[in-house]
Amino acid sequence: xxxxxxxxxxxxxxxGACKVVIQRTGxxxxxxTTVDLxxxxxxxxxxxxxQAPRTSLSGGEITDTASTETTSSDLATLASELIIPIxxxxxxxxxxxxxxxxxxxxxxxxxxxxxxxxxxxxxxxxSGRVLKLHNSKDGGLxxxxxxxxxxxxxxxxxxxxxxxxxxxxxxxQQGQIIGYVGSTGNAAPNAPHLHFAIAHPRDVSLWWTGPxxxxxxxxxxxxxx
Length: 225
Hints:
The chain is mainly beta.
């Protein structure tokens, strides 16, 4: 049975291993936590923590989400909503990292890495709302957000810190600062970058699920005249 990619950040200890991967049976031993923060710095104290969402262990298949068809019309609509989440980055400068091999060629990256100096503002690529502020030992400080259509999930990882006032369910405006580029989690300390990913779950409330979509052509389309 084909296993659907899910929105779970599992990153090895270098930029070259940055990856959004399928959660498999072996991943059940991970100890990542979902954290709601009242302050928005990397060294903040979490006031509420719960076990991260888990997938079924039955054969390793994902059973909490269904396959979602993504049409060309869906992608065109999404592209019309987006901007590049780092100011000053040209569409032509975006690296093609989505299909890069990871884990010795057993996986592909399925995300876009945008290199930028530590502390560079990260912008909300679309209007929408925050679904979850998530703190993972691998992905570091992350934001999961719904797009304007409330059908896609946009993910921002390795943030150095959140923007002031960030919280779950916060409405977002396109271009709003949501955090700052960093290397939290397992990103290489000397290579700060934004790990930006898009997925299309059957329901955005299942923010950790959904087939991955390559952000690069959408951002290039959005930036074209």
